[in-house]
Design brief:
The structure holds 2 protein chains of 2 kinds. Chain A is an alpha+beta fold. Chain A is built from 5 helices and 3 strands, in the order αβββαααα. Chain B is 39% helix and 13% strand. Chain B is globular and about 70 Å long. The chains are: A alpha+beta, B alpha/beta. At the A-B interface, helix 1, strand 2, strand 3 and helix 2 of A face helix 11 of B.
């Protein structure tokens, strides 16, 4: 059901944990829906120098968190903002359709953490280009 | 990946086919392949084999052979029992009573009938998954034409008070169906003593082949056919008989019901040791279902702060086969309707694990699961934002 890449990131997730005094924190998801993702970013001179995560969820949710944090590390905030859920899913060599919302959650987690940082800096938060109404666009599990 | 061993603890999903059953079936593929409806010798042999299997099923249930009809499995038997009785008794009434924790073969059939103009009462269950006989009695109206309550639940293993429910149905002269797919071989069944009018069973749950089951229909029941066509099964279920499958079913049910007590004793001992070990070594774990009124091989536990599919993937890596009531493996976003019906909070339902033990399991299997599972849960908790080292209640963080 999962690609080798997903399983590899599930078995050996990168960047698990919290960052003390993180510069940006993004908390997304809902335990009722079976997935919660917390993203922690360390930001120096507009560059993400470290990214960590804590996730409650299925294999795809854990692998997406791992891959998303890998993808944004070392990027400028502008570049990191452009890392889409599709990019996360592609880097994982695909996700089953029912699990795509896990990659959406990862994208939202990164965005929320970046905007958390911007707000703390007194900056205007960036606006989602393609807002997802909520991360679960099928079924009845709503925020 | 690279699992050294396989520990199969998903017997409620399906079982392997016993060697004796495979052997009994073997001649009916290439040698005695005759169509039982034909007249020549090999066909007569097929007919004889089916009759003998029918007698075995009847014996296992305390029924008469002419009350047994072979089907393609549990789902067909459930569909036939419910639609067949509903449509045949439509003039008498349109009310059906079932429970909230039935298998989807029953629930979705009832939902279909609701679209066809029937009304359905879904009886609630208590925290253990038990249906209350008093609730059943209250739900019966003069329009009630069918009651269907499962014998034992496939997820949490709870055994329903079938004889009591059957007695109430009989008193009100309402046909009583039970989905006994999980019960055969685990609970002694006597359809006459337990007032059961219709009973569904499926061979692959008791070490028989897949794709074959049976429906017991008490003599005198009014029931429409489901599968129309030829005159097989005494004109009640069309389709050339699955001879090898039926022979396998007959052999499997005879073996499964020969020593239920002995089988249960062995499985229950393994199960209890595993369950005790899990609850002792893993904090924030709870048993779902009834502590005593449960299938001998069933364990259903919830681990707070973690999600079921993740547990399964790790167990699979270690060669352990299990299942979960989490949404994430079901293709929907809702967790198990059974766990929710028992009042388990949604977020905890996501962290449920079902281990169902059976004939293949040994003490070494139990040891292995007890070695692996605590590590898996603790590893997942370490990366869970809900887990605060067990200091907080946890799930209601938002």
């Amino acid at each position: 059901m999962y690609s080798e890449k997903v399983m590899e990131h599930f078995r050996n997730p990168r960047n698990v944990g919290e960052i003390e005094n993180a510069d940006g924190i993004g908390e997304v998801g809902n335990p009722v829906c079976g997935d919660i993702m917390n993203i922690y970013l360390k930001i120096e001179k507009n560059v993400i120098t470290d990214a960590k995560f804590k996730t409650f969820g299925c294999g795809a949710a854990i692998a997406s968190s791992s891959m998303a944090t890998e993808l944004v590390k070392g990027k400028t905030l502008e570049e990191a903002w452009e890392v889409s859920n599709k990019a996360v899913a592609e880097a994982l060599e695909g996700l089953p359709p029912i699990k795509m919302h896990c990659s959406v959650l990862a994208e939202e987690g990164i965005h929320k953490a970046i905007n958390d940082y911007r707000k703390k800096q007194g900056l205007e938060p960036w606006v989602e280009k393609n807002p997802h109404s909520h991360e679960h666009d099928e079924g009845t599990c709503q925020q | 990946m690279g699992a050294q061993r396989t520990v199969y603890m998903d017997h409620s999903a399906t079982t392997y086919v016993r060697k004796e059953v495979v052997e009994a079936m073997a001649p009916y593929h290439a040698e005695n392949f005759g169509n039982p409806s034909s007249i020549y010798r090999i066909a007569r042999e097929s007919r004889r084999a089916i009759d003998s299997a029918r007698a075995e099923v009847a014996k296992a249930l305390g029924a008469d052979p002419d009350e047994i009809y072979f089907t393609s499995g549990g789902s067909e038997s459930d569909n036939w029992a419910i639609k067949g009785v509903a449509f045949a008794n439509r003039k008498k009434g349109n009310h059906i009573i079932t429970s909230a924790i039935e298998h989807h073969a029953v629930l979705h059939t009832c939902e279909y009938l609701e679209k066809e103009g029937f009304t359905v009462t879904y009886l609630p269950v208590d925290q253990y998954g038990l249906v209350s006989p008093a609730d059943l009695e209250k739900a019966i109206t003069d329009k009630t034409i069918l009651i269907s309550v499962m014998y034992a639940n496939n997820e949490i293993g709870t055994i329903e008070p079938i004889a009591e429910l059957g007695a109430i149905a009989r008193m009100h002269k309402v046909p009583f169906h039970t989905d006994a797919v999980q019960a055969i071989g685990n609970i002694p069944i006597d359809v006459k003593a337990q007032n059961i009018d219709l009973l569904s069973l499926s061979a692959h749950k008791f070490y028989g082949p897949k794709g074959v089951g049976a429906l017991y229909v008490r003599k005198g029941m009014k029931i429409d056919n489901l599968i129309h066509g030829g005159g097989q099964e005494r004109r009640h279920r069309a389709g050339t008989e699955n001879i090898a499958g039926i022979v396998g079913l007959g052999k499997a049910i005879a073996l499964a019901t020969a020593d239920i007590e002995g089988h249960n004793r062995r499985i229950r001992a393994l199960r209890d040791r595993l369950l005790t070990g899990i609850l002792k070594t893993i904090p924030h774990a709870r048993l779902n279902g009834h502590p005593e009124k449960r299938l001998p091989g069933n364990i259903n536990v919830s681990f707070e702060f973690v999600e079921g599919e993740s547990i399964l993937l790790w167990l699979d890596d270690e060669g352990i086969c299990a299942s979960t009531g989490s949404a994430c493996t079901s293709g929907s976003l809702e967790p198990s309707h059974v766990l929710l019906a028992t009042g388990l909070p949604v977020e905890i339902s996501h962290g449920s694990l079902r281990l169902t033990l059976g004939s293949v399991n040994t003490d070494a299997d139990v040891d292995f699961v007890l070695e692996v599972l605590p590590k898996v849960v603790s590893r997942l908790r370490e990366m869970s934002p809900l887990y605060k080292g067990g200091k907080e209640g946890g799930c209601n963080v938002q």
